[in-house]
Amino acid sequence: MEYVYAVGLGDLALDGTAPVTGVDGGTVRTVGGGRGLTALVSAVPADRFAEEHLAPQLEDLERLEAIARAHHAVVDAAFATATVLPMRLATVYRDQARVAAMLDEQHPYFEELLRTLDGHVELGLKVYAEPRAAAPAEEPEPAGASPGRAYLQRRRAERRRAQDTYGAARDTAEQAAGVASALASARAVHRPQQGEWSAGRGENVANEAYLVPRQDVERFRTELAALASDLPGVTIEVTGPWAPYSFAGGVTS
């Protein structure tokens, strides 16, 4: 069976600065269609990747992570040298002939997407709110207040600070979307991250991706970073550049 990582126009090659292998250490090679598209693939065993055997692997978080790491490593190595369309995780075909047929069948759709993505990268934009980071280093005790009253006053101050911080974060997220959209060709809005994905940064109030021309990447970073430079408790994080997973038109969903 053939595991498909990405599709591109013409000849595809991997960035040679570091050796890259596919899922389970497979050798990555190319399969061409008859109309100019090329897929990056590696052989995988049917007893693990046929449909009836694949689902249990994707439910095993450790195994899923191993597959995802190998998948993304191949896509990233290809993206370093060419515009590629990342394929959905665990996209598998019976043999090379079926991969080539898929390339020909999907040629108009894939070619249009690749033309759109050419010269662009994906940048992630996240906005976080952390009310504790907005607190003064030392808050004075209310003068003349009993311990109980002082506690209630501190709690009220904490609630006000939380409201102010979240309000500032939401306003910043709205501003950031405007600035980012002006520099980008497309925008994708994702669900805010929770739990360990946002640990240490506060609450993730905005999680978006932008398709940005390569020449505007540094400008994007600079202009977005400036929006939260003087807002205690509000953080803007720009990640990437990545292969355009969020803009693959459903191929990677």
> What is the CA–CA distance across the termini?
21 Å
Domain unit count: 2
Tell me, briefly, the overall form.
Answer: elongated
Q: Mean pLDDT score, rounded?
A: 87
User: What is the helix/strand order?
Assistant: EEEHHHEHHEHEEHE
Helix content: 25-40%
- Largest pleated sheet: 4 strands, antiparallel
Write the CATH architecture name of the largest domain. 2-Layer Sandwich
Low-confidence stretches: none
- Count of alpha/pi helices: 7
What name does CATH use for the topology of the largest domain?
Alpha-Beta Plaits
Which CATH first-tier class of the largest domain would you pick? Alpha Beta
Lateral arrangement of strands in the main beta sheet: 2-3-1-4
Radius of gyration: 23 Å
Structural class: alpha+beta
Number of strands: 8
Beta-strand content estimate: 25-35%
